[in-house]
């Protein structure tokens, strides 16, 4: 096949292929320094809102400028993949974030991104670039917003009018010029549902989340003991937290995903509170063998469960 050089046609073909691969949205931005994000990130780090997430302080320049991260890069392709489940955990159980119900998203999305890269090479010719899935110094929400895929809400999540916020964000940073999209407007309005509902008051200002106060931070990132001052504030969450998304009015438009690998292990949804409290390492391995919950390890999950008692 002869390489296609018309950037309008190339951009349209990439978006078409992304849709075929199951991504719900695809947008493109020029690879350049994120001028607006720089002071925000610096301020957030200076206030120690990253807690023990010291990796957030690394590669400051690369985090803000993709051309320093991927040599010769010209475009950032942002993609969204839905993970909203058809069925959720019941009431009066210990809860995990919906994104961790199924298999680890890193592997699933990386595989799709590889397919998209191969398609681009086959269609356009040799394309240099790298794929990113929440595992490198890339401000994925900022790029998705810049690419017109949604706006960053008061809970600091990317939100869309069409499907809410229950999706993963990934990027391909590539060395070809494409047609760039424009940002959409903010539709949070006067709503403060997420701020009012946060069990640990982690949303300290509209659009500012103190990561060191978030339940997700305490249950996943924090390796030391959970501070006693947040005792009885976890609302039964043992891995992650979805409260600010569950109360967001835009998530009434969430639709169940179509990715079989995101379906929960059959035993997960039937686990009672007692099952959780008496979980063994064998059950942990069986139910969460391929899940992102593995990240906290059995010992970490046990710590979180004990903290709720």
TrEMBL record:
Pathway: tRNA modification; tRNA-queuosine biosynthesis. The keyword Cytoplasm applies. The keyword tRNA processing applies. Binds 2 [4Fe-4S] clusters per monomer. Keywords: 4Fe-4S, Cobalamin, Cobalt, Cytoplasm, Iron, Iron-sulfur, Metal-binding, Oxidoreductase, Queuosine biosynthesis, tRNA processing. Its EC number is 1.17.99.6. GO terms for cellular component: cytoplasm. Gene3D superfamilies: 3.30.70.20. Its cofactor is cob(II)alamin; [4Fe-4S] cluster. GO terms for molecular function: 4 iron, 4 sulfur cluster binding; cobalamin binding; epoxyqueuosine reductase activity; metal ion binding. It is found in: Cytoplasm. Residues 176-207 form the 4Fe-4S ferredoxin-type domain. The active site is at residue 134. [4Fe-4S] cluster 1 binds at residues 188, 191, 194, 248. Pfam families: Fer4_16, QueG_DUF1730. Cob(II)alamin binds at residues 63, 134, 155, 158, 169, 216, 241-242. TRNA binds at residue 223. [4Fe-4S] cluster 2 binds at residues 198, 214, 241, 244. It catalyses: epoxyqueuosine(34) in tRNA + AH2 = queuosine(34) in tRNA + A + H2O. It comes from the Bacteria. PANTHER family: EPOXYQUEUOSINE REDUCTASE (PTHR30002). Catalyzes the conversion of epoxyqueuosine (oQ) to queuosine (Q), which is a hypermodified base found in the wobble positions of tRNA(Asp), tRNA(Asn), tRNA(His) and tRNA(Tyr). NCBIfam families: tRNA epoxyqueuosine(34) reductase QueG (TIGR00276). Belongs to the QueG family. This is Epoxyqueuosine reductase. The gene is queG.
């Amino acid at each position: 096949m002869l390489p296609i050089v018309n950037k309008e046609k190339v951009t349209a073909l990439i978006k078409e292929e992304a849709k075929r691969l199951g991504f719900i949205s695809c947008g493109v931005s020029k690879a350049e320094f994120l001028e607006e994000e720089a002071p925000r990130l610096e301020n957030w780090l200076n206030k120690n809102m990253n807690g023990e997430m010291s990796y957030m302080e690394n590669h400051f320049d690369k985090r803000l400028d993709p051309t320093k991260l991927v040599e010769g890069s010209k475009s950032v392709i942002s993609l969204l993949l839905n993970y909203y489940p058809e069925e959720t955990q019941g009431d009066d159980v210990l809860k995990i974030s919906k994104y961790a119900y199924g298999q680890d998203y890193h592997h699933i999305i990386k595989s799709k991104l590889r397919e998209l890269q191969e398609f681009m090479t086959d269609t356009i010719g040799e394309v240099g670039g790298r794929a990113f899935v929440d595992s490198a110094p890339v401000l994925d929400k900022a790029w998705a917003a810049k690419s017109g895929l949604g706006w960053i809400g008061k809970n600091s999540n990317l939100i869309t009018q069409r499907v809410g916020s229950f999706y993963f964000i990934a990027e391909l940073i590539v060395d070809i010029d494409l047609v760039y999209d424009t940002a959409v407007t903010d539709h949070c309005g006067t709503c403060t549902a997420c701020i009012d509902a946060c069990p640990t008051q982690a949303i300290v200002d509209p659009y500012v989340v103190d990561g060191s106060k978030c339940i997700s931070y305490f249950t996943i990132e924090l390796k030391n003991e959970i501070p006693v001052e947040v005792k009885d504030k976890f609302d039964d969450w043992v891995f992650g937290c979805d409260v600010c998304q569950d109360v967001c009015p835009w998530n009434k438009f969430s639709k169940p995903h179509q990715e079989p690998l995101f379906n929960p292990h059959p035993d997960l949804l039937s686990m009672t509170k007692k099952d959780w409290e008496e979980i063994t390492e064998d059950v942990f391995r069986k139910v969460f063998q391929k899940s992102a919950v593995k990240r906290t390890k059995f010992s970490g999950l046990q710590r979180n469960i004990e903290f709720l008692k």
